[in-house]
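Protocol step 4 of 6.
Sequence for Sugar ABC transporter ATP-binding protein (Antiquaquibacter soli) entered exactly as in the expression construct, tag removed. Do not edit the line below.
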Amino acid sequence: MSDDARPVVEVTGATVRFLAETALDGVDFRMFPGEVHSLMGENGAGKSTLIKGLTGALRLDAGDIVLDGEPVHFGSPADAQRAGIRTVYQEIDLLPNLSVAENILLGREPRRWGAIDWKAMRREAAAVLGELGLDVDPASTLSSHSLAIQQLIAIARAISADVKVLVLDEPTSSLDLDEVAELFRVIRELKERGVAILFVSHFLDQVYEICDRVTVLRGGKLVGEYLTRELLRIDLVQKMLGRSADELVVRPRSEPVESGEEAMLDVRGLGRGRLEGVDLVLAEGEVLGLAGLLGSGRTEVARLLTGIDRPDDGTIALDGVVISPRNPRRAIGYGLTYSSENRRTEGIIGELTVRENITLALQAQRGIFRRMRHSRQKELAASWIEALGIRPSSTEQLAGTLSGGNQQKVLLARLLALAPRILVLDEPTRGIDIGAKVEVQRLVGELADNGMSVVFISAELEEVLRVSSRITLLRDGRAVATLQSDALTVDSLLAMIAQPDDGE
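Step 5 output, structure tokens:
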């Protein structure tokens, strides 16, 4: 993109009001041909409102949109699509029972003598797939492909028409590293073709890897537009949150911890399946990070520690005494609690209220014959809502209607109500906005300061470094090293994690 390039799309003075609330307040936004642009901000910053206005899902109360130098007015998403602005959503809106070709050309099927020309449709779909370098049979059923391939097919559908601006809404939220790499290859291919791509993601490392430019919103207002390469990550977070750098630093305990009498938890030779010989040491009031690539064994270790799975080998000692957490109930009895990486299916129960979600584990521990009074549940829930800064309308709000960050805090409240000694957190900040991430990270630090021990797992290496005092590196089901976090950087940690076995 040259310095004198004209924006392919430019929004000026975008304003949206909902009754007395101003969701978007005079925001300017632009995208250039052949660039990847990120829109950043906390939940409620106005990102979704701006995207809806840009893609025709919402009418602006004030402001203008100019596309290719011409003013446009979108009354619906269909209007925006016809103009060349298309969106691929996080929840893929394709039809899994139809073929790949049918999904790509749905509503635009080539016809002959009034009937669908199936050969022509498969041929056209194959051409679009070929443009993206995708080796996919257009006649195959969509459901036969992985989520990552379906995501790429959704992009193929979007570009099968004349696309000028492509909006990708959290496209990597359910992808592993290899799948993300393939998606980024396709994004770079589209960039070379001159498509302007709006990449919406909570993953800062991905934003810095793929995006050329970033626009920051806060409280419905424009903070600024920046070249990604010129903006430090800490400065980006500071601009998003409106807080000083000092307020964003999590200062973990830094004293070295060795195996011995001072270790609260001492794990030796833990193994199950491809996980083998894992040693861990955790002291009271320490945050121990587990870092490794997808499939390295991070979640497997968490599940063994908390009784969800049983180990084939090894010992787990608590305060010098070998324990056997054969199931989650027994693990809780030892003071070991687990927050799953899959918040939606193994954590929050959206159909229950905030009160019911917070008191759920405590009630299960008490048993069905010792029902907790409703007034006591409400009192307990209210105390945790205040302590963790959860923001529901009331204790009776359905948990499924909360933001991702508030849902994560409800899960933490549920576990903390059990008064655990050791908290095992598996991807506690996945899929939540940066402000909520910082709040959860600071909460983990405060829990450790108050004597709770935490095992912290995250795919975001910068986050592991920020939160943990020590980090155990996992590779291919084995713990290969444990190091002080202040001796590591993201690059050095990544290099050690990705090192091949023959380099050890």
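Step 6, annotate. The two ends are 43 Å apart (CA to CA).
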